[in-house]
């Protein structure tokens, strides 16, 4: 019967379109191979610009390392690919990655919608390659040759990496270690795919909203796989809910690894749900979990446990476990967050910036109102013409009338108005009843959310040629300006 439950769950994943077809898998592999060839050609061009000896140009190389859902093998049909460009010691991010490689990619017929995202913790290029969205950050290793089959766990390659490069590399390290430490990789992948599906359905997925991100769920799932290596998929899901419904938080969750000797970090254990990164003795996953989101996550763990503790019941149905969270039935009042911009290509910048500051808003709401449920789903009102996005956050019953929404907005505005480089859009905060929520907003928290559409460069602006520092008169690319050549914009 437990095997039957596992098979029915796997079939449900297929029916929901969460498992890519063989053709889609082959297409992704082809895209990765093409990108690897491009970065190898790129690094040899950079080596020539640097006037390296011919023998060094002949042997130097770069590669790509995948991470995220694709790197863990839990991606769906619509998933993007997160790939890290790993270059040798002489290739720089500013000149070579964001100019030379950018121009090489832009000239390719398979590439479209390419732009640079620089003013973030992990700078990257984002583009579409043969119909697949690619996020491509960069790290520089202190070596001449970066082998295609790079063993990123080898300490030889991890010397003297700067802070930005380490942030990019840590994502790959986490994926690599998780895959190495789980006892059965295929069983772990099936389990994680199911757990992510559950988290999205129940509205507890999304680090920016204070919930669990992909890396959090991957480590939690891997931990259960280590604790129960011989049980089937359905039992693993049941054990997952039981384990974390009654976990003694803030005791950290950490994978079993004989090569590491974890040390207690008092700062990190003040987090609500500390989860240790699997490649470090002292580093933890970045977390935005607050009092409100911690309460909801624990509630959903307990609900999952109650529904899966008896898998052998004759009327057991996975659809009950994975039922979308009923926001409009659960909450009578909502905070409506309306974000708009005058142009569509400016909306992504504005929404991305606001979402990166959501924790500030959540903390203020908790201060004046109590618990709040920041639904991660994004909605569009078809009756509004301007480019916009709407969020509806559930509010705790009984205290709604006491909210001074103007003071909340004033505090939040002071936070978001500092440091933003793009054109400001509009933000409106208001309290609405469940009956005022448009019927078009069905609160399907599984809806696919597109990445922020960062503003494209205006090609009518003046463009300044950038010359190689090592080969005079050799143009490596162009930088757009806002009319003043001394102040180039972020777009390349």
From TrEMBL:
InterPro entries: NT_sf, NuclTrfase_I-like_C, PolA_pol_cen_dom, PolA_pol_NTPase, PolyA_polymerase
Name of one Pfam family that matches: PAP_NTPase
Cofactors demanded by this protein: Mn(2+); Mg(2+)
CDD domains named in the record: NT_PAP_TUTase
Enzyme Commission designation: 2.7.7.19
Keyword set, alphabetical order: ATP-binding, Magnesium, Metal-binding, mRNA processing, Nucleotide-binding, Nucleotidyltransferase, Nucleus, Transferase
Positions with a binding annotation for ATP: 80-82, 135, 196, 205
GO CC terms of this entry: nucleus
Reactions the enzyme catalyzes: RNA(n) + ATP = RNA(n)-3'-adenine ribonucleotide + diphosphate
Protein's GO biological process: mRNA processing; RNA 3'-end processing
Keyword check for Magnesium: yes
Chain ranges of the Poly(A) polymerase central domain: 188-323
SUPFAM superfamilies, sorted: Nucleotidyltransferase, PAP/Archaeal CCA-adding enzyme, C-terminal domain, PAP/OAS1 substrate-binding domain
Class in the EC hierarchy, top level: transferase
Residues reported in the UniProt entry to bind Mg(2+) 2: 80, 82, 135
Ranges of residues in domain Poly(A) polymerase nucleotidyltransferase: 5-182
Residues at which Mg(2+) 1 binds: 80, 82
Cofactor note as given: Binds 2 magnesium ions. Also active with manganese.
GO molecular function, one term: ATP binding
Subcellular location field: Nucleus
PANTHER family: NUCLEAR POLY(A) POLYMERASE 3 (PTHR10682:SF33), POLY A POLYMERASE (PTHR10682)
General function of this protein: Polymerase that creates the 3'-poly(A) tail of mRNA's.
Family: Belongs to the poly(A) polymerase family.
Protein name per its UniProtKB record: Poly(A) polymerase
